[in-house]
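ZP: hey, is the FE2/S2 (inorganic) cluster complex queued? I don't see it on the tracker
AM: it wasn't, my bad. submitting now with these inputs:
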Amino acid sequence: MSGMVSEEAMVVSVADIAEGMKRMVLRAPSIARSARPGQFVMVSTEAKDALLARPLGVSGADPADGSVTLRFAVVGKGTGWLAGRRKGDTVRIYGPLGHGFTTGAKDCILVGGGTGLAPLFFLKEAIEREGGKALLLAGAKDRMCLMESDVLEVGCIVATEDGSMGELGLVTGPLKRLIAERRFDMVYACGPVPMLKAVKQVCAKAGLSLEVSLETRMGCGVGACNGCTCDQAEKDGAWLKVCKDGPVFRAEEVLR
Ligand SMILES: Cc1cc2nc3c(=O)[nH]c(=O)nc-3n(C[C@H](O)[C@H](O)[C@H](O)COP(=O)(O)OP(=O)(O)OC[C@H]3O[C@@H](n4cnc5c(N)ncnc54)[C@H](O)[C@@H]3O)c2cc1C
Ligand code: FES
C-alpha cells in the first residue's frame, strides 16, 4: 500500500471501445507517477446505493502528462455512474493498490479474456519499454465485446468463440500452438477464472512461469475488511486477500 494517494482526478476523455465498454483517461499525476502494471485504483462513485468504491485495474499511466487510463465494462451502478462522467468532471480515486506483475523477462506472452485485457495494455507497454517482447493474445465471445478490437488487429493474436474476429475458439488454442513453436520466458494472464485455470494447465505442462491477476468483489481495497477473500486464493489454510496479497499472484499459489 505504500505510495497510495487519494486524488480528485479530472476526466480528460471518455470513449466507447466495445459494446458496453469504455476507455476513460483521467488526470491523476501522483498515481500516474507510481502505478505499476497489475495494480489497481479504487473509484469512489456517487451512484445511489453504491457506497463502496469500485476497483478498476490501471490500464495505462503516463508520468509525463499525469494521465491514468481505465478500461471498463459498464455492468452495474458504480461503473454506470462512472461511464456517465464527461470531460472536465472530477472523480475521486485512490491508489495505486496491490501487487502488480513482475517484469524483467525478455520474451513474454500476455493472455487476456474479456475485461481482463485492461491491465495487459499497460503491462505490454512496460515490457516493451524495458526492451522485452510482449505478444498479446486476446480472447472474447465475439468481436462486439472485444475491447479495443481496432488496436488488437495489429500485432496481436485474437480468438473469438464465434469466429467473428481472429481464430475461432478459445484463446488457449493459439497459446498452445505458440508454446509448441518456440521458447518463451514468461506468461501473464488476466480474465475469467475458467480461462485462468486453462492457461495455468497449459503453462504447467510446458514448464513456463505464469502470473495471474484475480478479480473479486472488494470492500476497502486496502486489506482492512476481508471483503476480497476468495476460494481461489488460500495459503497454509488461510484465505489470501486479493487486494493486498494480489491481485497478481504466481499461478502455483492460486486457482485450485
Ligand atoms: C483488482 C480488480 C481490478 C479490476 N479491473 C477491472 C477493469 O480494469 N475493468 C473492468 O471492467 N472491471 C474490472 N474489475 C471488475 C470491477 O471492479 C467490477 O465490474 C465493478 O466493481 C462493478 O461495479 P458496479 O457497481 O458497476 O456493479 P454492481 O452494481 O456492484 O454489480 C453489477 C454486476 O456485476 C457483478 N460484479 C460486480 N463486481 C464484480 C467483480 N469484481 N467481479 C465479477 N463480477 C462483479 C455483480 O455480481 C453484479 O452481477 C476489477 C476488479 C478487481 C477486483
Ligand atoms: S477489499 Fe477489504 S480486505 Fe481486501
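AM: back. The chain has three domains: 5-97, 101-210, 214-256.
ZP: great, adding it to the tracker
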